[in-house]
Amino acid sequence: MRKTIALMIIIILTGTGCNPAGSEKPDIFLIIIDTLRADHLGCYGYDRNTTPVLDSLAESGTLFSRCQAQAPWTLPAHASIWTGLSVASHMAGIRDMITYGLSSDFDNIATILKSEGYITLGFVNVVLLNNSFGFANGFDHYSWVAHGHGRAAETVDEVLEWFMANRGNPDPKLVVIHLFDVHAPYDPPPPFDKRYSLEGTGGITDWEVSDDTELLNPEAREHLINMYDGEIAWVDSQLGRLFGQLRELDIAENALIIVTSDHGEEFLDHGLWGHAHSLYQELLHVPLIISGPGIPSGVTDPAPAAQYDILPTISAYAGVSVSDQVEGIDLFSPSQESRIIPSSGAIPGHCCTESCENFESICSVLNQYRKGIYNFHNGDEQMFDLSLDPGEHHPQPLDSVLLESLEYYRATPPLEIPPVVRGRGIDDTLEDLGYI
Ligand SMILES: [Zn+2]
């Protein structure tokens, strides 16, 4: 009997997976850098030194080298991060030009941790993540701006000001920070504007498109990549400032820090630019770095991971169980090599003249290194072996296993009816961002 009780106490204290010793709940920082493709970080093998701060964070923790986004643009991808669900289950996004938000009936990362005594703080920089879209649910403090491009420094200041004003508060905190600077236009502030191009932002900072959606400046690709990389280096420097200040406040050492992105960015890799329009890896391969007490350090984990794993991983670390509906897994539990990771939610945009259905009907699944993409509207199918063809330039016909997985995913009914979002200014902002 005594052994049983002792065992139960150990289980209660340590939970499952990878959580810190003792029963004190750690502060948790979830940092989402919008539009950041994984292959432009030094720690993901990029040949430019864009991210010394994140490279250092990866050395102190675990880098998941194959994290897959659930959607190729902001709204549905964040909904998956918030809930641990696939797009088919939460259905946030745009379909037939109607915008759907995140249902408030779902548990999300804030509601789950708030119920466990956490103070929940959100700092976001795009209208798509405001309360109209359902993302503020469960947050004690939620700061947002409609189009927060270029606000990395201000956002870091806001976070630090909150901690300075609440110094000594013993409750654990969940801090979700969304930074929008890497998103187009690519116009980093000095000196990052000239880090990779002497032209700086005096040159072009975005793609130029004609009224009939023809790309007018494809020759600017290299310059725009230089500017994009400058934005990444700028945001990395601001995270260095954040982490340094948190260390001075004795917060960083005992906190769990997760850095990821919602989706990547296309630079004509498959003839498209921006994001939201395809399910190729330049949009779906996102960084995921986790560091904190108890997290293995200096580890690169090549097992397939997904952004809908973030919620169950954080919850397990905090010793909280999640609903059976959650589709992601705790990344520090034994890996599931055979898992199927789905993505969908593409939409037409300013670079596309085809019908909505041609985009909204695309789904992909990843199984180990095999990836299938199927368009349920026009029947286009592609399969790639990412171990041999990471750039996805040599498509093969779909095999029956991946096709079956795609059909199963496509047939998945939503768990809740997503709310339609309408509001003054929202459509204008979505159009400004290139989403409608
Ligand atoms: Zn985004």
Strand-pairing-aware structural class: alpha/beta
Estimate the helix proportion, in percent.
Answer: 25-40%
Radius of gyration: 21 Å
CATH topology: Alkaline Phosphatase, subunit A
Shape-level CATH architecture = 3-Layer(aba) Sandwich
Highest-level CATH class: Alpha Beta
Q: Characterize the largest beta sheet: strand count, sense, and whether it forms a barrel.
A: 8 strands, mixed
Number of domains: 1
Query: How many strands appear in the DSSP assignment?
Result: 19
Distance N terminus to C terminus? 64 Å
> CATH superfamily assignment?
Alkaline Phosphatase, subunit A
- Percentage of β-strand residues: 15-25%
Strand sequence of the main sheet, in spatial order? 7-6-8-1-9-13-2-14
State mean pLDDT (0 to 100 scale): 91
Low-confidence stretches: 1-17
Account of the 3D structure:
The chain has 436 residues and is of the alpha/beta class. It has one domain: Alkaline Phosphatase, subunit A, CATH 3.40.720. It contains twelve helices and 19 strands. The strands form five sheets. An eight-stranded mixed β-sheet has the order 7-6-8-1-9-13-2-14. A four-stranded antiparallel β-sheet has the order 16-17-18-19. It has a three-stranded mixed β-sheet with strand order 12-3-15. Strand 18 and strand 19 form a beta hairpin. Helix 6 packs parallel to helix 7. The longest helix is centred in the middle third of the chain and has 28 residues. It is globular, with a radius of gyration of 21 Å.
